[in-house]
Prior knowledge:
12 helices; binds (4S)-2,6-dioxohexahydropyrimidine-4-carboxylic acid
Amino acid sequence: MTNLLRIPGMIDPHVHMRDLEWAHKATFASETAAALAGGYWMVMDMPNTPPVTTTRPAVEQKRAAMQAQAVCDWGFYIGASQDGNEAEYPYIAPLACGLKIYNNATTGTLLIEDQAVRERHYQAWPHGKPIAVHAEDETVDEILALVRQYRKHTHFCHISTQYEIETLRAAKAEGLPISVGVTPHHLYLVEDDIKHLGTLGHMKPTLKRPADRDALWAGIADGVVDVVESDHAPHTLEEKQSSKPPYGVPGLETTLPLMGLAVHEKRITVERLIDLLALNAQRIWRLTPDAATYTLVELESPDLIERSRLRSRCGWSPFEGMKVYGKVREVWIRGTQVYDGEAILVAQGFGRNGMIRDGE
Length: 360
Ligand code: DOR
Ligand code: ZN
């Protein structure tokens, strides 16, 4: 008999599900189905897809679309806007899973480079829900200055360099309220892989040197890294192969099998895999999944990442052809089986906003 591992309430706190004005790339229906196929209970959507999630009407529009379409539980971030949307926080923060501040350029229009503007957002954001930041290189130090001053929990997304990991290791030792996320693509790919991946290897932060990748694995080994997040960012193959390819790669269906590969190669233990994909995000976002919310995964037999088996609307992966370990057999949410290893078993709209607790 095959041994199945039980993981309680897997969370991906960093996905770009698109829909709305970018429904040609992907939809909440298609990408929450991909999330279930990837083993996830809950996904948290980023605010950079147009219309950017910075105002009350944009929040209402996203919320209604997710409510109607999602097959897994969900949350969404409010985007910090350059022009100032702090006055909206009292109304929109209670619905969201956190604030996202883009401090370096990437896909979309959200970008704040002015430290004084960043500070206004830090001041205004209510305590209790994390501030997630896109911060690279010395921008990490600029954000740490705000964390030191305001003591609001800050999640550093997709950390990709040795310098950043070392800086954040020191910041944790200092006792700052921070957490650290890394992506599977920065753990498994390096800049040299762009030779064979072409523009499918383009994302922000960019792929780095082997020494940087090794520093991320060291951060996983010593606990500096809290979360492995996919930064699932689907773009159509046509867009990726155009003369102006957008940044981003999909990852919802490949993250668990790639971390299963890390277990198989003895880089991490099974317990650490569960921390990185479920328990640490539950702690950071203060989420307690129902006892009957869990994933059963077969970690022992090898599997191949193949384009034809992916559910994400974009239909490609930078990891195609890799031999991985971690076949999702069953996903259960609140006592209902939602995925059986092949098919989605619930209708669109089954998923709930996981940040709204019963009675709130
Ligand atoms: O590569 C990326 N793609 N990095 C980001 O920060 C945004 C994302 C997207 O939305 O395409
Ligand atoms: Zn992202």
